[in-house]
Amino acid sequence: MTPKKQVSPAIRILRGERDASARATHLEAATRKFLVTTNGRKQMSTKTNFKRIALVAVAALGMGLLNSAPSQAAFSGAAGSQLTITVANGTGSLSKSDTTTAGTVTVTGLALKNTDSFTVQVTKKSAPGEIALSDAPGLRFTFIDTATATGNTLVSGRNGTDTTTMAATSVVGSGATLVPFILNKTKDSFTAVSAVSQGDNTYVNATWYAFQESTTGTRVAGTYVYTLIVTPNSTTANGGAGTPQTADITITIAEPASSSLVASPAYSTLYIGDGTGDTADEAVSVVATASNTASAYLNVTLRNVSNVANARESVTITTTLGLVGNSDIKGRSVVVKNDAGLNSYGIYPDGSAGTATITVSTPSVTFPTKSITFFAKAAKTITASVATPLLAVGSNGAAVTGVAVDANGVAWTGAAYLVASSAADALVAGSTTPTSCTYSPTNARHECAITALTAGTAKFKIIDASTVALATATSNEVTVTVSTATAASVKIEFDKATYAPNERARIYVTPLDSAGKAMQSATYTSLFAAGGISVNGAVSYTGSTTTADSLTATATSLTTAAQASSTSGARAGSMQFTVYMPSAGGVVTLSATGGTGLPLAGRVAVTASATVTDSGAAALAAVNALATTVASLRTLITTLTNLVLKIQKKVKA
After folding, report:
1. Which of 220, 211, 251, 247 is nearest to 132 (CA)?
2. CATH code for the domain in which residue 308 is found
3. Torsion angle, CA of 439/443/448/449, rounded to 10 degrees?
4. Quick one: pLDDT at residue 362?
């Protein structure tokens, strides 16, 4: 008679035999008989018929390098039987380390007996140099699924020799809740056994996630290596604990983009100027005399892809003239250190004159080239001009201007001075003691102010030194006129007589003296009577600083320009308004009446008119002109035809 076979408590649970005895027996087996010690070599009781499935997970999310390490430990102790551990490395970031960034570990083997099991342990092998190995976080293991396994799996674990179970003992099958285990030290372990008897000589395999525990230990960006230890176990007579099997897994924690030290071309900046910390380029021109003091600066800020100014890359600077660098290193081509934030590198004259081209680059960024002008110490020529045709008594800015060059023809931007030609001239304006002028990079010229004292004329020169005796270059002599005239009348006019529809138009208001001539720049009150200037056309003010109130109200009190400008359209001695003409053709008329700021003779009506071409009328005129031309051509053709016929008749005769 065949002896009665004992039924496994786990099988009884799965079959629905959920009596108290079965549950008690099952829990006792799981907690007392089937947990292994830290070295994984304790044999299980021969009274239990559980089949052991070895499942271990340590993994990397797709990006990891796949490694395979075949086990040489005997599964059930039988010769030729092996466990195979396949590991894929994992990734992560300082803000994320979970199953989405994890790798995988698959354990496969031939279970010769249905009592086979194995124990998994992990030890830390290496960590980034910024932290101690003992402070590195441990690994979290999570069972993925048994969809690729041969059966359901019963899993339990302990924290070393503690009696507290690391996670509740659970049966995990396909689609079941994931069971996590955190393995921080060699003594931490978990055991995987089969919950369903599969019989002898059965291949078993399963896959686990393995990722870095983000709530324990110290995490920094870098590479972490862990060693996985898998020990097979058997309760058969020729079995026992097998030889431990090992495989390494690497978890790479990426550097946050905001912490990247790599410079981004999109956010890194370079500015050239005469001071440190400039946030815009300046037109820089300096004297070429050799000096160890920087005359200008290259202001570099390296930012990473997160627009954070903590990128660190060496900076290569090259110039065609002068020297570049800092107090420690300077030359025509240098490689200098870059710290986080703003870095200012000096530009030093070395005696060579001309315009230098400077290139700045890092391993990741090449900036647009910059330029700087080195001019000779002394100017060769200075050309002076009168910018303000009529000076008013008092201060007159940029009344005289000068353009200077050195012996190489390079723009000379050194200190220039204005001086009255004689004491008699100084009685009208200016002084025989040279006064400094200001160089304007925008206008590429020196601009000299004059203080006028009384009406008359005065002559001036520009020199390249603070005294006449020290000057090496003196400009041509120019004459300025100081006026104290008062307004006797006012004139309004357009800048053109004819405009296209919607074309911009400039309106000029000019106060005139008793001789009908334009006057010095000043503020004039009540040039027009109340209501200012009226317009009979549908002009537009969109896109202009002029408004309807500018003409009707503000125009009663206005300030005229001191100098003309081809850019803005300003006229010396006039106030300018800008409007846009109507879209329809016709005549636009401006009307105003002289105000109380003028003598009685000047308080009269003034007007100005301009014509807007009618596009339809112009087209009709063109058609009519074409018709006239066609008619003329027809007449000519008829005449030519008649002539040919006459010639033919004579030839036949």
Report:
1. 220
2. 2.60.40.10
3. -120
4. 97
**In a domain? residue 295:** yes
Other Cβ atoms closer than 10 A to 442 = 6
Q: How many C-beta neighbours within 10 Å does residue 352 have? A: 14
Tell me, yes or no, whether 454 and 503 share the same domain.
no
Tell me, what CATH number does 445's domain have? 2.60.40
Position 206 in a domain: yes
- Cβ-contact 46, 62 below 8 angstroms: no
Tell me which H or E stretch contains 652.
Answer: helix 615-652
189 and 130 housed in the same domain: yes
Q: How many degrees, rounded to 5, is the angle at CA 233 between CA 228 and CA 238?
A: 140
CA distances from 410 to 323, 407, 470 (A): 19, 7, 21
Q: Is residue 165 part of a domain?
A: yes
Instruction: Dig out the tokens for 68 from the structure.
Output: 């395979």
Strand partners, 93: 96, 254
d(CA 142, CA 207): 9
Please tell me whether residues 105 and 233 are part of one structural domain.
yes
Same domain for 191 and 285?
no
Pick the last residue of a domain from 327, 358, 375.
Answer: 375
Tell me the C-alpha distance between 284 and 341, whole Å. Answer: 24
Tokens of 17: 């035999």
Alpha-carbon dihedral sign for residues 546, 551, 557, 562? positive
**Which range marks the domain in which residue 585 is found?**
489-613
3-state secondary structure 555-619: HHEEECECCCCCCCCCCECCEEEEEECCCCCEEEEEEEEECCCCCHHHCCEEEEEEEECCHHHHH
Quote the pTM value: 0.58
637 within some domain = no
Rounded Cα–Cα distance for residues 498 and 494 (Å): 9
- Mean pLDDT in runs of 10 for the chain (653 residues)? 43 40 41 37 36 32 34 41 80 83 80 68 88 87 59 49 41 43 54 53 72 80 90 59 82 85 95 92 94 96 93 96 94 94 96 96 97 94 96 96 94 96 97 96 94 97 96 97 96 96 96 94 93 92 88 86 93 95 94 95 96 76 83 90 85 73
Predicted pLDDT at 108: 75
Q: What is the pLDDT of residue 156?
A: 52
β strands within 89-151, DSSP E: 90-93, 102-111, 117-126, 139-145
Do residue 556 and residue 439 come from a single domain? no
Nearest residue to 462 via CA among 361, 342, 382: 382
In a shared domain, residues 476 and 507: no
Asked if 90 and 252 touch (Cβ cutoff 8 Å), the reply is yes
User: What is the pLDDT at residue 115?
Assistant: 65
Query: Quick one: pLDDT at residue 622?
Result: 75
- Provide the pLDDT for residue 201: 67
pLDDT of residue 244: 79
Q: What is the pLDDT of residue 167?
A: 42
Total structural domains within the chain: 4
Name the amino acid, one letter, at 536: N
Q: Would you state the pLDDT for residue 653?
A: 63
Six-digit token string for 179: 């069971």
Last residue of a domain, one of 358, 375, 392: 375
In terms of Cβ atoms closer than 10 Å to its own Cβ (0-12, 13-18, 19+), residue 248 is middle
Contact (Cβ atoms closer than 8 angstroms) between residue 555 and residue 582: no
* Domain shared by 300 and 218, yes or no: no
Residues 60 and 128 in one domain: yes
Q: Could you say which DSSP state residue 178 is in?
A: P
Dihedral (CA of 63, 68, 74, 75) sign:
positive
Tell which phi-psi region holds residue 354, choosing left (phi > 0), alpha (psi between -120 and 50) or beta: left
**What is the DSSP-derived secondary structure letter of residue 412?**
P
**Secondary structure of residue 346 in the 3-state scheme:** strand
